[in-house]
Amino acid sequence: MFLDRERHFKIKKIMITKKQFQFIVDCDVESMVSYLIEDYGMSIIDAFEKVYRSKIYTKLIDRNTGLFIQSPAYIYDYLKTELK
Questions:
Q1: What is the DSSP track for 70-81?
Q2: Helical (H) or strand (E) element with 42
Q3: Residue 69 has what DSSP assignment?
């Protein structure tokens, strides 16, 4: 059976409140900060600064990218690439 690739891979619009969205973003940031501390031995302040000043954070807080629905580990891989 032939799949309509465009329809098959189309991301559905996720309906969540602003509070729910912010909660998800905050949880993702918390996880990425923890990963930075573990992987690079950063202080908590430095880790938060790296996350909040990154391009990936800008994409994370943009609902249109859909990045916020991905796992924190997935998002962190993009952050690590950006930090190289």
A1: S-HHHHHHHHHH
A2: none
A3: G
Q: Render pLDDT for 21-55 as a digit per residue (tens, 0 to 9).
A: 999 999 999 999 999 999 999 999 999 999 999 99
64-73 contacts: CB < 8 A, separation 24 or more?
A: 66/11, 66/14, 68/21, 68/24, 68/25, 68/28, 69/14, 69/24, 72/27, 72/28, 72/31, 72/32, 72/35, 73/31, 73/35
CB 33 within 8 A of CB 48: yes
Cα–Cα distance measured from residue 7 to residue 82, given in angstroms and rounded to the nearest whole number? 31
